[in-house]
């Protein structure tokens, strides 16, 4: 198997995280109380799919390392999905789902910022352009998730006050 560079490893991780994010947004959309946020969740899922397509397209240009990168991406996706299942096991409320998404989206942003920094430092203009796009997308995802969990927290607080 090909030896992966640190950039290759991070690209594999962001690819796997984008794949897992598509599953996570669908799961959260099906939780109790998520109705008002289904549009945002659908958009986030579509953007995760676009992130996957763009990242995979870039990986296609990396001769001799594609298979190893995609294999690592599968591992990352599996780990992220396992984490989601563990965190959300037995949970039905959207607030719990958005709490999980807050961690997942922050993790994706962190990974993309690392890709962005490595690509910038090494002069990989194509990877940097991809990362610049993804960092912007992830920032919007974090803002959407934050808005949702805070709205849901207000609703929960109001229910507590009424009880």
TrEMBL record:
Provenance organism: Solirubrobacter pauli
Designated name of the protein: Ferritin-like metal-binding protein YciE
Superkingdom of this protein's organism: Bacteria
């Amino acid at each position: 198997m090909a030896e992966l560079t640190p950039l290759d490893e991070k690209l594999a991780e962001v690819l796997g995280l984008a794949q897992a994010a598509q599953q996570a947004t669908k799961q959260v959309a099906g939780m109790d109380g998520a109705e008002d946020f289904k549009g945002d969740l659908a958009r986030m899922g579509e953007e995760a799919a676009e992130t996957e397509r763009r990242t995979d397209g870039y990986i296609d240009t990396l001769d001799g390392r594609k298979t190893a990168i995609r294999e690592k991406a599968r591992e990352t996706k599996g780990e992220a999905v396992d984490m989601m299942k563990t965190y959300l096991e037995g949970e039905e409320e959207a607030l719990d789902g958005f709490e999980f998404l807050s961690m997942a989206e922050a993790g994706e942003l962190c990974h993309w910022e690392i890709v962005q920094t490595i690509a910038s430092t090494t002069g990989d203009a194509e990877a940097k352009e991809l990362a610049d796009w993804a960092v912007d997308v992830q920032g919007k995802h974090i803002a959407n998730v934050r808005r949702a969990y805070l709205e849901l927290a207000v609703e929960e607080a109001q229910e507590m006050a009424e009880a």
